[in-house]
Specification:
Keywords: Glycosidase, Hydrolase. InterPro entries: GH (IPR017853), Glyco_hydro_1 (IPR001360). It comes from Butyrivibrio fibrisolvens DSM 3071. GO terms for molecular function: beta-glucosidase activity. With about 425 residues, this protein is an alpha/beta fold. It has one domain: TIM Barrel (Alpha-Beta Barrel), CATH 3.20.20.80. The chain is built from 15 helices and 13 strands.
Amino acid sequence: MDRETFYIGAATAGHQVEGNNTNSDIWAMEQMKYGGYPEKSLDAADHYNRYKEDITLLKSAGLNAYRFSFEWARIEPKEGEFDEKEMQHYLDMVHFCKENDIEPIITLHHFASPKWLIEKGGWESEYVIEAFKRYTKYIAQNLSGEGIKYICTLNEANMGNLISIYIRQAKEQYEKQEGEKATLQIGLNLEEMKKEEEAKEKENIEVFGTPFPAVFVSPRSPKGNKIIMETHKAAVEILHEMLPDTKVGLTLSLRDVQAIPGGEEKAALDWHDEFEEFLPAIIDDDFVGVQNYTRAVFGENGELPPEDGAELTQMGYEFYPEGLPNVIRRVHASFKGEILVTENGIATDDDTRRVEFIRRAFDGVKACLEDGIPVKAYMYWSLLDNFEWQSGYTMRFGLIGFDRKTQERTVKESLAFLGNVNRIETNTL
């Protein structure tokens, strides 16, 4: 495999790095008392205005691809009304990548949605299928002739499903502890949630017109999962028709699901909920984006915490870069299209551990390639330290840091390391 067919780069999401995504649902929730966001994104990393600086740093390090998202809430701020200036902004980003020999890998939706969409039922309403089709057609019209190789329709289409699982597990944990305070790794606290439920529903009505706004990362019902899959399939059809030379897929958040004796059944159920439930909707796609950060080990009583003494990241995940090749192999057993690693990374202030994480993860990718698995890209998450949703700015995933007051960039050694991987390893793949 030559260098031109394998991409090593980094990824971002618009809302997390651009700032001031004021027409989005997440921006609205950031302003709410009970929106679940203890910190506001504000200017974020100001990537909206500084993308040339950031992409230049990426190129200077030796990387050859950049995955970023178009923000639906910017492009269609009001239902059916498209903002040509905002569309041109993202086209300018595409052009700047191309001018610098950086392959743009585009994501159409990365968690943030237009606020008006949520007011119309959001991701639990079949209305979203037609709305996303309209948005996708507009994007495809504007990308005609741009030579885009890869488009991801939806980022982590399984996230709502995973959150439903986490909430169920939290409730089970709470019941087992017979009323003691119970929390999960993602920070859910059932006791506090119950106290705030009534006030939260009232505020949701004031902001979204409904007590239960179905944002993309809300707990998802079986109906919602079907809507997600139909939305994706409709977008794939449009993109294949309008951009026949572009490969289309979606991305999934996938842990390396393992079992100890007695945990096989629970592990199998978890893998079904994370991956297999979505397989029928993606089986004929050109590629699937794999996003892995850690592993999950199951015993007979459910998911086990990391072992005592295990190294943990800022997110509370077990440091386990070997999870990536394990997931790639498991996905490939069922999905025969191309595989792109669209996210893989670590939140830490110790950049030497980031370097080690990348080293071991990419060694696993190389082993997969040597075995003939069609992996086409490795995108580290994230190019920049960013607004990590409900964790705010406390989680530092970036290859590049920044000062929130001055926006001055600090290039970390891990960026150079990843660029060196690109210069050396892709010539031998």
